[in-house]
Amino acid sequence: MDSWRMDKTDYIENIQDGERRFISHPVEFREDNEEGTIEGIASEVERWYDLGYFEERIAKGAFDEVMDNDVRALFNHDPNLVLARTKSKTLNLSTDKKGNLVYRYKTPNRSYAKDLEDSVKSGDVDQSSFAFRVAEESWEWRDDNKDLKKDRRTITRIEKLYDVSPVTYPASPSTTVAARKLEDHNNELKEAKKRKNENILKLAKAKLKLNK
Q1: What is the rounded CA–CA span in Å between residue 130 and residue 21?
Q2: Percentages helix, strand, coil for the chain, rounded to the nearest 5?
């Protein structure tokens, strides 16, 4: 597996409103008869993650409407390294009792997949990621709740699931979409404060005229 692949731009960056998240929950190897199976949790629900400038969680049930999507399992989210696919019934997606997104596939007869299986067995690769687009979300703002350390985003419904991926490094999550919404909110807040200040100034001027 060539090291240059690690530096390639994630394809999800070129998909409108596409996002990616990473999880440190272990990827596991299971031996079924003489075949090897890779299984991992791509996303944990009802758990807050600190994404730097805001916190985020995915609500239980958010994946309910995308379980029949055409989803790929990729290594290091590289579309050239396909491991399995739901359309071909080589990738199995499910949710566990907690609502976490679980993926499972049998190692295909491809050199990079065999290499990955060996890396998972040894524990050298033990993390996952998934790529998605949001359908519904809600925000809690620090402006409204001073007890919050950061603004909070809850993803309540996923619109599209693109891939699940065992990964070598859990790189920084793609949060451009959420960041844009956060910036829009802050800009709206600034405009509201500006309008409020302008109104206060107008009232003050009006009072001055009355007092003359």
Answers
A1: 6
A2: 25, 40, 35
Q: Residue 168 burial (CB < 10 Å; 0-12/13-18/19+)?
A: middle
Structure tokens at 109: 């007869």
Q: What is the pLDDT of residues 57-91, one digit of tens each?
A: 999 999 999 999 999 999 998 999 999 999 999 99
Instruction: Say how far apart CA 135 and CA 114 lie, in whole Å.
Output: 36
- Return all residues near 153 (Cβ < 8 A) that are at least 6 apart: 54, 55, 56, 57, 137, 138, 139, 178
Q: What is the DSSP letter of 17?
A: T
Asked if 10 and 21 touch (Cβ cutoff 8 Å), the reply is no
List pLDDT tens digits, range 98-128. 999 999 999 999 999 999 999 999 999 988 9
